[in-house]
Amino acid sequence: MTDRATFLGRIRREMGKTSGLFPATTAPRPSHPRLIAETLRRELAERWRETLERFRAEFERVAGVYHRVRTAAEVPDVILAIAREREARAAVTWHPSALGTDWRAALTAGGLVTATMPAAGVEAIGERQALRDLIAAADLGVTGVDLAVAETGSLVLLSGSGRPRSTSLLPPYHVAVFDRDALVESLGQVGVFLEAWHDGDPAAWRGGVINVITGPSRTADIELTLTRGVHGPKEVHAVFVEGGLRG
Amino acid sequence: MTTGIRASLMVTCLGDLFYPEVGVRIVRLLRRLGVEVDFPAGQTCCGLPLFNSGYHVEAAAVARRTLPLFRGSQHVVVPSGSCAWMVKHEYPGLMTEPSLRAEAEALAARTYELSQLLVKVVKRTRFTSAIPGRVTYHDSCHLRRGLGESESPRAILRDLDGAELVELPGHDECCGFGGSFAVRLPEVSTAILDKKLANVEATGARCLVACDAGCLMQMGGGLRRRKSPVRPVHLAELLEVDGGE
Amino acid sequence: MSELSTPFRERAAHALDDRFLQQALTIATTKFIGLRREAFDAFPDGDALRDRAREIKEATLQRLDQHLEQLIDNVEGLGGRVHYADTAEDARRIILDIARRTGARLAVKSKSMATEEIELNEALLHAGVTPVETDLGEYIIQLAHERPSHIIAPAIHKTKGQVAELFARELGREVAADPEELTRIARAELRQKFLDADLGITGANFAVASTGTVVLVTNEGNGRMVTSLPRVHVAVMGVEKVVPSMSDLVVFLAILAKSATGQKLSSYTTLVQGPRRAGELEGPDEFHLVLLDNGRVRQIAGQLREALSCLRCGACLNVCPVYRQIGGHAYGYTYPGPIGILLTAMLHGGAAVKDLAHASSLCGACAEACPVRIDIPRMLIELRKDNVERAVAPGPERVVFKALARLLTMPTLYRLAAPVGRLLQRPFVRDGGIRRLPLFFGEWTRSRDLPAVASRTFSERWAELERER
User: How far apart are CA C333 and CA C343, in angstroms?
Assistant: First the structure.
């Protein structure tokens, strides 16, 4: 085993023996990522309809199930319908502050046992374990979406308080709710947001994981036959709320 | 009719020893097209077999003695894509002296595989087929990937009077020759060949055309062994110029 | 087989006799080739991005030390720990120490070629830690006590019938040979393991220096499980996996899945940062990044430098005429296929590939398919050259080639080749061709005819051709 200085020292020594194979530069980075991201959001807001259409096409191409509602109040109906069809009894959701709206009452009234993730940090390991078990036992996980990427039909989810990572991982059905603010066109634009989220001191986002989800969990490891729902969800639903999720 | 085009034939070792008829046909064809053809004496091999097996000092020696033989050539025409690749791609790097390197680069620029010379220099794609019927074409690796050339042979074959070109499934897949590979790993080489020949036979073609002696030796050897009616032919063996053209 | 046989040649011949393997390889590689082609046909920016990706890899190497320093600082700033492994043994020792210190008994692993390379699983077992592979393909071969036969589809060589038998034997579960059913069983078995495991071990497809982020690309979700549920996460990565920034990362993400499986992106691209953040429910208590040399650093100034760009996508395997015939096990090392030969030389030295360097017809399909345009054939020839210069190539072969070289540089000698050839071949020529030759030449004629040396070579006919004019 080596230490940092020795390890890097050897790398530097080898580097010193060559100037490389050809002149090369790395990718250009936005100089003010948060500003650029803001500008990008404003521009994208103007073309949200086309972006949504492309997102829908790509999302369905990767076996995502797409829904559209006019207002946030209609979302629980969609979730309840999904739950009924799949015989799902229990759901877990992100905290309302992370979702933008509170659907607990509507979902519970509809017969779906719903647990909401707490907003404040839960530190005690016993409590964390209990919440983890709750998520693991749930049939349906309801989350928001930080970016909906049209190029690939992907959902980008940041982890954080009130938005634990396994809500979109452990239950077999994942329902992601989003509005036009989340829409972006391309992976390149995702790159801008990734830069922006880490920009600043302290960084704008200081969570543990960013998940880029493109369709349900899948494998073709046995004779190249595609099966879904290996370790992650077997279905991913995206619900678009025309009227927006906040206020 | 003369075109003012002069071409020196680099006949290649396999061409010289095993497929002289191909060389003969090329000479006669080019002359019919008004190209002045010569054959610099003292040729042996381009050195590719030595190069590919890692004998670079020896390959460089072969390259160094080949270079001056073509010093005065306006164009060099080569019946095999792999040999053309060797000259164009590897000769300059094998030369350590700057003057030889410059000469090798100049030679590389004037070296053409046969179909390239016909299409790009002589600017002719129209010929009559010596063997009428369905033909299929195998892209040899060094010609297609090494030299980026998959269009010139096809342009000629598509225009070939009396022949019908059928695309070969897996046309860009290796035939399994690979030079010494064919005898170092003969079982693998043969398995690759069998796959290629199954595709060839599936086309129903009468002739299998290629622009490389190595590929023809491999595929021809397999077709003969299984007594196939498909004839392996070099492109040059198909091309005839009608009288009066 | 003659005395010219080598262990590799025998393994290859053995693979050729395995009919199911032959079928599986044809189906799988053909499918992957088609998927990759479709994905890039629909992606007009593809070629330009591949050039960019290649350039970014080279640019990263040109400042590798700085990027690694930044990565290390950021990982440590997030509360993670970084370890430095010169050799495979170092890496194993580091990971075993972590396992011991944290009292780990059960480890779940997300697919990682780097951990295969350092032969981690055996070491964990000996230390009393049970490693469980969670990628379905890896899980299957782990139960079967085999090694992966393909970089991204490790169990490509197994039929569903064989998998069902395996599950019956190893898990005591009777089940039909149906991929859906088999997957459900694996899901249930492994779900409990994820929840019970103390230690999660992954590789890293990329590590972003500017943020300290480790990136995992998976389809099954096991990468997410392994990095969220156990209390300790260890990521093992070759030093060349570092990318400078998120802006660089997205260039690679745009081409990686397309090259591997034809998907625009895999189901999960997971960007993990350090141990559990304050305020979050989940995440490991400890995050460790093991930086692995194991032969890579020497290639920074070495002839295999280009191979350090490899994204481990498997595209070269799928198009290689040799791999397609013999599969991964015949290569005999962790990494199979065209890039595998180079990586084996990197890890074990040039002499280790004295036969493998010839497991190629130099067709170039690999370089054509490679998303970062690694010129594999060029480096294979370099390895062959080294083995000649260091007299690693067998003596008799060197004698033959040097004799050939003499023949080709002496025209008077060369002119004798045809008459001598015609004389020697006489007993063997039938109808202008040769069906059987003795000794070494039998390697050709066993399966193919050979043309006879022409009764008059081209050179011998030139004089009269000249006169024809």
Answer: 10
B154 and B199 share one domain: yes
| Nearest by Cα to A180 from A238, A141, A140, A236 | A238
For residue B67, is it within any domain? yes
Phi, psi of A227 (to 5 degrees): -130, 150
Structure confidence by residue, pLDDT tens digits, B77-130: 999 999 999 999 999 999 999 999 999 999 999 999 999 999 999 999 999 999
Residues from chain B contacting residue C459 (CB–CB below 8 Å): 11, 16, 39, 43
Query: Which of C321, C362, C461 has the CB atom closest to B192's CB atom?
Result: C321
> For residue A66, which phi and psi values (nearest 5 degrees)?
-105, 140
User: Is there a single domain that holds both residue B47 and residue B63?
Assistant: yes
Residue A188 clears pLDDT 80, i.e. is over it: yes
How would DSSP label each residue in C238-266? EGGGEES-HHHHHHHHHHHHHHHHS-SS-
**What is the side-by-side order of every strand in the sheet holding A90-93?**
A65-69, A235-241, A173-178, A140-143, A90-93, A113-116
Q: Are residues B62 and B144 in the same domain?
A: no
The nearest CA of chain B is from the CA of C393 a distance in Å of 10
Stretches in chain B below the pLDDT threshold 70: 1, 243-245
Chain C: closest CA distance from residue B144 (Å): 10
Q: Which residues of C408-443 are buried (b: 16+ CB within 10 A; e: fewer)?
A: bbeeeebeebbeebbeeeeebeeeebbeebeeebeb
ipTM given for this complex: 0.97
Low-confidence ranges of chain C (pLDDT < 50): 1
Owner of token pair 């090694």: C147
Identify whether residues B100 and B131 lie together within a single domain: no
Nearest to A71 by CA among A243, A206, A233, A246: A243
Q: How many CB pairs under 8 A join A and C?
A: 275
As beta bridge partners, residue C237 has C291
Domain extent for A60: 31-241
**Has residue B64 been placed in a domain?**
yes
CATH of residue A206: 3.40.50.10420
CB-count exposure of residue A134 (10 Å: 0-12, 13-18, 19+): middle
Count: domains in chain B? 2
Q: Tell me whether residues C361 and B178 touch, CB distance under 8 A.
A: yes
Tally of domains within chain A: 1
pTM beyond 0.90: the answer is yes
Q: How far apart are CA B82 and CA B101, in angstroms?
A: 20
Residue ranges of domains in chain C, CATH in brackets: 7-30+298-389 (1.10.1060), 43-294 (3.40.50.10420), 410-468 (no CATH)
* DSSP letters for C6-21: -HHHHHHHHHHH-HHH
B172 plus B225 within the same structural domain: yes
